[in-house]
Amino acid sequence: MVICARCGREVSPEDAVRQGSRVLCEDCLMDEMRPAKACDPWAVRHARSSMGSGAEAVRALRGLEKRLYDLVQERGAVQKDDAPKLLGAGEREVDRAFATLRHMELLRAERASDGSVLYVPFRSRPGGHTAAC
Q1: d(Cα 1, Cα 132) in Å, to the nearest integer?
Q2: Which CATH number does the domain 41-121 belong to among 2.40.420.20, 3.30.830.10, 3.20.20.80, 1.10.10.10?
Q3: Is the Cβ–Cβ distance between 120 and 105 less than 8 Å?
Q4: I need a labelling partner for 8 at 20 to 30 A (CA). Which of 31, 63, 92, 105 fits?
């Protein structure tokens, strides 16, 4: 077994990938090569065209995306740092779920007065402006 240089997990040698001088698991390699990106206009456009209305998008949710969406709807806001432990999931998985929900315009992030990041429902801001990335 080898140890992933990024996450510290034990990985079988056939599942490990050498990235420069480091050995990474496949998950960490994917994260480094293509990190979750919440603000992606093309992904938003694709989600809008393929999912239709917000209600259709909500019905299509499964797994961690549904659990994160339901948690934010129930509480009104969830601190980004608290979401992984509330959902019993890893930080990377929650970041990817959030990015998907942001593309579907179901959740957005906003900075709280104390500087922390909150996940909140995606809705128009006062004055009719929609949330920015």
Answers
A1: 44
A2: 1.10.10.10
A3: no
A4: 63
Q: How far is CA 95 from CA 14, 59, 71, 128, in A?
A: 27, 21, 15, 27
- Domain range list for the chain: 2-33, 41-121
What pTM did the predictor assign? 0.68
Tens-digit pLDDT profile for the chain (133 aa)? 999 998 888 989 888 888 888 998 888 887 777 666 667 665 556 566 666 667 777 888 899 999 999 999 999 999 999 999 999 999 989 998 999 899 888 999 999 999 999 999 988 454 333 444 5
In the chain, the amino acid numbered 47 is A
β-pair partners for 11: 2
How far apart, in whole angstroms, are the C-alpha atoms of residue 72 and residue 127?
23
Rounded Cα gap, residues 80 and 109, in angstroms: 8
Cβ-based neighbours of 109, under 8 Å, separated by 6 or more: 38, 80, 98, 102, 117, 118, 119, 120
